[in-house]
Amino acid sequence: MTNAPRLRAPRQWLDPRVTTWWRVLVALPVAAMSALLLLLGLVIEAARWWLVAPGLAVAAVGGIAAVVLPRWWYRLHRWEVTDTAVFTRTGWFWQTWRVAPMSRIQTVDTTRGPLQRMFGLATVTVTTASSAGPVVIAGLADEQARDLAEELTRITDETPGDAT
Amino acid sequence: MSTAEWRTLHRHTLVATAIVLTGLAMAAGVPTAIGIAAGTSAQVALAWVLPGVAVLVGGGVAVDHLRWRRTRYRVSPTSMELRRGIVVVANRSLARERIRSVDLGASPALRILGLVKVTIGTGDGRQGGAGEQTLVLNPVSRDEGERLRTLLLDRGDPASGGERADQPLATWNPAWTGYAPLSFLTPLLASSAVGAVFQVSEWFGRQQVPIQVTRDLAEAIGPWETLAGLVAGFAVVGAVASSALFVEAWWGCRLDREPSGTLRVRRGLLTTRSVSLEERRIRGVEVVEPLGARSAGAARLDVVATGISSDRKKELSVLVPAAPRRLVWAVAREVAGLPDAVALRAHPVRARSRRLWRAGVAVVAMAAVVVAAAAGPLPRFWTWVIVGVAALVSAGVIGLAWDGYRGLGHGLDERHLVVRRGSLRRSTVYLQRSGIIGWRIRQSLFQRRAGLMTFTATTAAGRGRYSIVDADEHEGLQFAAGVVPGLLEPLLIRGGDAGVSLPAEPPRRGGEADNSPGDQYRA
Questions:
Q1: What is the predicted pLDDT for the residue at B507?
Q2: Residues of B in contact with A99 (CB under 8 A)
Q3: Of B259, B285, B229, nearest to B430 (Cα)?
Q4: CB pairs below 8 Å between A and B: how many?
């Protein structure tokens, strides 16, 4: 098949600051867990090395993951908005492309979690009438997310129909 | 016009409440009375139990009376209003043009009194979502229920004023009951019967009794005979229970197309139900053939429609229960306006290998269990039982893998996307192409290596998503792009023969568009 179609990656990348956000997201639970283990190891003398050793191991593995993985994730996540549809691609083990046509978009939400706010990031969630899950772009720069949401809302308002 | 008057619910609701509460009181009171009487005397027991029953029934009826007095409804030319509430008065009104469903239901107590419960819904919003609004009138007389149903659902189509007769699409045949024991409910219900036996023996503090009885039986007639007997008993109990449920739910069912553009399902032996569905909400049909029913040449017809509860227990989307396949397909064609059968494309053989691999893992696990059992200190009898079960399970999963692959298929007609899949639950869905509101395309690591992809069409109707599983990635993309023209096209590249892999380099800064023909792939 010479003319066999393939899927290309959507054109847009997330904001680079998203890697920092992801690092914190990985580091926080890792830090909490290893701190707990180390603390217990200090208190409980009888089982000290049974607690301290796993605590250090968790910290080491988690630390490496927090440094390495987000950079890799950054390459995987892509999105694109055309005149007709919103596209995203996510995941590696289950690489997933999602497509929502403009004419079927019901709501466009922008949310900013407390951590995201620290890094000036936002999430844009595009829902359709299907229960199969929304199209989520998590990790855009604030103003970019706002512009995108506004643009999508404008386009969908101009499109007639009840989106079902 | 009388339609704008406030009306009350039917006053016999008090009788219905009294009947139900008396039944409840009997169920709870008789065992309690027996329990007390066993310790003391019959008089003491009655002296304790009767006042309780009186308070329960009397109090319940009093509350229901208050509810009945405070509930009013009316149908104005533009809206349906309900006013109710004992402490806080709530007013609720639905615009009539938004009303999409009027369902009638009658429990046995209501049926005796000639009453029905009316549920009026707007059917918008996502499934179970916030948009859905319902009004419940519980109860009104059967005639009033019918009047409301026709009044609220009839959009007054003057063109069809002449012949306003229902068109029957399917009617009940008692022979269908024969398919009920083949349902997956059979083992499920039998298991709960076994659970109930143990539960009851525990209430009486004799958990050991069922086990002891089995053991005695095994000593008397031999272990294999006992096992065979138990399996047979299990099957019979399950078959009887599932048949009973089927008959209760579906006795006398009929599917009609009404002149006002609605489909109506009426069914039920003790509790009767009537479900109406506007045809313009229909986005397709699904012919479901569970393994058991399929082996007997039977199938079930579900409707794929927007704003219908996907709650499987309520079976609201079922149009025809387990019935002969040819009849079900005839009704499906009638309901969805299908042309003759669409030829489905088979999926690549690699999809079968995937399934056989998975089955192989299960077989290896079974073999491990057998080895462990043989090495362990189990009696011979149990070892052989485990070997037998493992052999059956292994044969079963391999069979399912094979059959699951044979079931895979996808196709297209002028108006529908057709997807077939599944073995335990073989389903063929005809989904209107205009009802598809997006795609989710997924490829796992293993699928990538086999060149397969899963294409999920999302829709507002039915289960919300219907998947073409394990299609060839190139053929599937070509196909999916053709289902909804233009939608996937911007994401496709044609020509060349590079494998899909990680994208090259992220942009240097700012996360802006990487507009160089930037999505080169590394081979």
A1: 53
A2: 438-441, 487-488, 491
A3: B285
A4: 154
Q: How far apart, in whole angstroms, are the C-alpha atoms of residue A77 and residue A65? A: 18
Strands (E), B433-523: 436-444, 452-459, 465-472, 492-493
Is residue B486 less than 8 Å (CB to CB) from chain A?
A: yes
H/E element, A90: strand A85-90
Instruction: Report d(CA A29, CA A63) in Å as an integer.
Output: 11
A4 touches chain B (CB under 8 A): yes
The CA-to-CA distance between both ends of chain B, in Å, stands at 77
Separation of CA B450 from chain center? 34
B493–A6 CB contact, under 8 Å: yes
pLDDT reported for residue B363: 96
- Indicate the SS3 state at residue A104: helix
Confidence at B443, pLDDT banded by 50, 70, 90: very high
**Euclidean distance between CA atoms A107 and B125, whole angstroms:** 12
Question: Is the CB of residue A140 less than 8 Å from the CB of residue A124?
Answer: yes
Choose between B499 and B179: higher pLDDT: B179
CA distance B266 to B325: 21
ipTM over 0.85: yes
At B140 the three-state DSSP class reads: strand
- The residues facing B431 across adjacent strands are B284, B417
Given this model, what pLDDT does residue A72 score?
Answer: 92
B504 or B446, greater pLDDT? B446
A46 in contact with chain B, both atoms CB, cutoff 8 A: no
Higher per-residue confidence, B2 vs A66 = A66
Quote the tokens at residue B367: 């073999």
CB contact under 8 Å between B438 and A130, yes or no, is yes
A161 touching chain B per CB within 8 A: no
Q: Hey, is B297 helix, strand or coil? A: coil
pLDDT at B129: 45
Question: Does B523 score more than 50 pLDDT?
Answer: no
Q: Please tell me what DSSP assigns to residue B174.
A: G
Say how many residues make up chain B.
523
Residues written for chain A: 164
Chain B contact set for A82 (CB, 8 A)? 490
Instruction: Tell whether A164 lies on the interface with B, counting CB pairs under 8 A.
Output: yes
Could you tell me which residues are beta bridge partners of residue A98? A88, B440
Cβ-Cβ contacts under 8 Å, A96 against chain B: 440-443
Given a cut of 70, whether residue B522 has pLDDT beyond it is: no
Whether A117 has its CB under 8 Å from any CB of chain B: the answer is no
Peptide bond just before B139 cis, omega within 30 deg: yes
Euclidean distance between CA atoms A57 and A36, whole angstroms: 13
Average pLDDT over residues B424-444: 94
Q: Is A101 on the interface with B (CB under 8 A)?
A: yes
Of A13, A78, A84, the CB nearest to B486: A84
B507/A128 Cβ within 8 A? no
Please, which residues bridge with residue A13 across strands?
A78
Q: Position B433: which residue type?
A: R
User: B221 CB contacts (<8 Å, ≥6 apart)?
Assistant: B229
pLDDT tens per residue across span B127-175: 444 456 788 898 999 999 999 988 888 755 544 444 567 889 999 999 9
Spatial separation of the C-alpha atoms in residues B24 and B34, rounded to whole Å:
16
Mean pLDDT across A110-131? 89
CB atoms within 10 A of CB A10: 25
